Amino acid sequence: MESITFARASQLTSRTGSPNGRLVLGLGAYPPEVREEALEANRANWDERTPIHLASQFYDIDGWIADGRGPRHWEVEALGDVGGLSLLHLQCHIGLDTLAWARAGASVTGLDFSPRAIEAARDIAGRAGLDRCSRFVCSDVHRAVEVLGGETFDVVYVSLGALCWLPSADAWAGQVGQLVRPGGRFYIHDVHPLAWAMADDELEIAHTYFEQDEPFVDDSDVTYADGEARLTSVRSYEWNHGIGEVVTALIRHGLSLVWLAEHDWTVWRRWPFLEPTGDGRWRLPADRPSVPLTFSLLARR
Ligand SMILES: C[S@@+](CC[C@H](N)C(=O)[O-])C[C@H]1O[C@@H](n2cnc3c(N)ncnc32)[C@H](O)[C@@H]1O
Fold first, then answer.
1. CA-based nearest residue to 4, from 37, 49, 47
2. How far is the CA of 142 from the centre of ligand 1 (A)?
3. Is 162 a pocket residue for ligand 1 (Cβ < 6 Å)?
4. What is residue 193's three-state secondary structure?
5. Which pTM does this prediction carry?
6. How many C-beta atoms surround the C-beta of residue 232 within 10 A?
7. Nearest to 113 by CA among 190, 31, 44
8. pLDDT tens, 134-147?
9. Which neighbouring-strand residues pair with 156?
10. Average pLDDT in the 125-133 region?
11. What single DSSP character describes residue 4?
12. Atom of ligand 1 nearest to the CA of 89
């Protein structure tokens, strides 16, 4: 499998008109058309990944439908009984993590900007007999409040591989803060920004830890799920967000932190030397330094 490479977004930034070709504007002044262009490239990339994921062993859709799997045990420990609650899953992809909460009794809404992913999520919901307690909405997460007509939810939920696709933790948190109902909860489990900043093949810092206006460009023609299929919309743009930036953004937008946990495990084999724990997680071996691979947090509005 070709390794994922990141490079500076020189092509993108050179269009900003800054004299030396580097982006010098703060996010507030980041030209909207450049940001839109990056998000549109990401959307096309995710649209193309969707059929590959649907056919993959990684997602194993038929197995998921058959085995009745609910949320992961650490998610249940975080949110408890969700029976009868409304739950919104932001960046839901093909809806498996969303529908797992429907199996646990929640009335779920999944939102994603990839039309093919949303179409697939609706189809899986029907095949799993969960269409009456689920709905899927196609929208950029930055427009979620508007598209959902100001509706608020008991729980807003985000699962692995979401934040890196968004340019600004603050803009994202501005949506989250308005989507959680007063007294409701927000829960996220995502890649830790320290793990994101590391090289693909070793525990070495290779990329910035903090949020920067300039995205990283990924020109890989493969996706993380198995399969030989190659992408044609190869270019995608990513941003890292430090833990402090994520937490502060949520607090700025009206949420109170209940707890924050940094985990020495993840749910996929991020590096070949990770060891399986036996319950779907992967850890660093004992002879390597222990560093956070994912994080989760619970907040209240
Ligand atoms: C790695 S996947 C999330 C996987 C997820 N944890 C799951 O349930 O399988 C990332 C998702 O984010 C979505 N996404 C990326 N940028 C987005 C945006 N600006 N608005 C809405 N969805 C976005 C992609 O379409 C993709 O489905």
1. 49
2. 12
3. yes
4. helix
5. 0.90
6. 8
7. 44
8. 999 999 999 999 99
9. 88, 186
10. 97
11. P
12. 8
The pLDDT, as a whole number, for residue 24 is 33
Say if ligand 1 is within 6 A of residue 112 CB. Answer: yes
Please report the atom of ligand 1 found closest to the CA of residue 94. Answer: 9
What domains are there in the chain, each with its CATH number? 6-300 (3.40.50.150)
| Residue 165 Cβ contacting ligand 1 at under 6 Å | yes
Q: How many residues does the chain have?
A: 301
The pLDDT of residue 30 is 60
Short-list 212, 220, 211, 273, CA closest to 243: 211
CB-ligand 1 contact for 141 (6 Å cutoff): yes
**Residue 43 near residue 113 (C-beta atoms within 8 A):** yes
Dmax over CA atoms of the chain, in Å, equals: 58
The first and second tokens of residue 142, run together, are: 């930055």
If you search the block for the tokens 């002879």, which residue do you land on? 287
Q: Find, among 185, 125, 160, 127, the residue nearest to 295 by Cα.
A: 160
pLDDT attached to residue 15: 28
Which ligand 1 atom sits nearest the alpha carbon of residue 92?
Answer: 8
What would the pLDDT profile of 159-206 be if each residue is shown by its tens digit? 999 999 999 999 999 999 999 999 999 999 999 999 999 998 899 999
Question: Looking at ligand 1, which atom is closest to the CA of residue 160?
Answer: 6
Both ends of the chain: CA-CA distance in Å?
A: 43
Contact call for residues 206 and 197 (beta carbons, < 8 A)? yes
Strands 153-158 and 180-191, how do they pair? parallel
Backbone angles phi, psi at 77, to 5 degrees: -60, -35
